[in-house]
Design brief:
alpha/beta, globular, about 325 residues, 10 helices, ten-stranded mixed sheet
Length: about 325
């Protein structure tokens, strides 16, 4: 079967403090949730009714078995989630200081299994047939994942919709300059680029939103989506159409995962053939809903929840 969406990239276990506004040294209890940006995007799209799968790797351990169970519970196909003997499934802790401070602590040493995705193991037929294929910047940070990511993009050759989530995580790279050539290569093979201001600057060397969007279009994509935080989101396509949409008012509890909800909704809107403004408004609403909740994957909204937020003009 051809999937609506296949994502490729990070997976792991998010350990979120059940007490907010306090440092990890004082947190007494945590909740365990499925995590990883590419995985969360697949979950978000599945919640919106899309058929999704994720390509990634885990440790051969109890947390690896947990993420398989969680994926199935969320309706995400886990057939391309395979174990790597000798490595541990990554765990990520965060601190929650609403409204805008959410430090992340990645435990991915000596190496995260999702960076062991090998080009020889890819189901290129399925990747080519998916309506949307989604890759991330983190997947370019180390081998063999880097070669696998670029090989998948080259095979797909811009068929359908191919999304590059710029996903800049400085702890996974030596510096932005070391990342930029690989980002440029990925952009050559993608039709949609999505990133916040820091991420578009890494990809293009430009930070001003409109200039960064133009630089992404010049790099080869057909749609550039620049997330501007409190200023909302800017979308510009190669046809000269653009939309700049303000954020939906929300009382932020945990901003982590909002971008992944945005990504799942973006895929949903592209598959529906909506115009740019409608896609951005729906994606903003999905992200705002998750920002109002503690967790990420299990917080992804249903279509009814997104429509209710849009009708109310805010997340309540």
């Amino acid at each position: 079967m051809a999937y609506d969406l296949i994502t490729m990239g990070r997976i792991g276990v998010d350990m979120y403090p059940l007490q907010t506004g306090v440092p990890l040294t004082q947190v007494a209890s945590f909740g365990k949730f499925l995590g990883g940006s590419a995985t969360n995007v697949a979950v978000a799209a599945s919640r919106l009714g899309r058929s999704t799968a994720v390509i990634t790797r885990t440790g051969d351990d109890a947390f690896g078995r947990y993420v398989h169970d969680a994926l199935r519970d969320f309706g995400v196909d886990d057939r391309w989630v395979t174990p790597v003997p000798g490595l541990n499934t990554p765990v990520t802790f965060c601190e929650v200081f609403p409204p805008d401070d959410f430090p992340l602590y990645f435990y991915r040493q000596p190496k995260a299994p999702d960076l062991e995705i090998d080009a020889h193991d890819l189901d290129l037929g399925a990747i080519g047939e998916a309506s949307i294929f989604w890759v991330t910047g983190t997947g370019l940070s180390e081998e063999p994942s880097r070669t696998a990511t670029l090989a998948a993009l080259a095979h797909r050759a811009k068929s359908g919709t191919t999304v590059f989530d710029l996903d800049w995580r400085p702890m996974f790279w030596k510096d932005p300059e070391s990342a930029r050539p690989f980002y440029a290569e990925a952009l050559r093979h993608t039709t949609v680029a999505v990133g916040n201001l820091d991420e578009v600057e890494v990809a293009t060397g430009v930070r001003e939103p409109h200039a960064a969007a133009r630089a992404l279009l010049d790099a080869g994509v057909e749609l550039a989506v620049v997330k501007q935080g409190p200023k909302g989101v800017l979308a510009v396509n190669s046809k000269g159409e653009s939309a700049e949409v303000p954020p939906l008012p929300v009382n932020v509890l945990n901003g982590l995962g909002a971008g992944d909800a945005f990504g799942g909704s973006l895929c949903h809107g592209l598959l529906e053939g909506w115009d740019l403004e409608r896609i951005m408004r729906h994606a903003n609403a999905a992200g705002a809903i998750v920002a109002s909740r503690l967790e990420c994957s299990s917080a992804m909204p249903t279509p009814a929840e997104v429509e209710a937020a849009l009708a109310a003009g805010a997340v309540r």
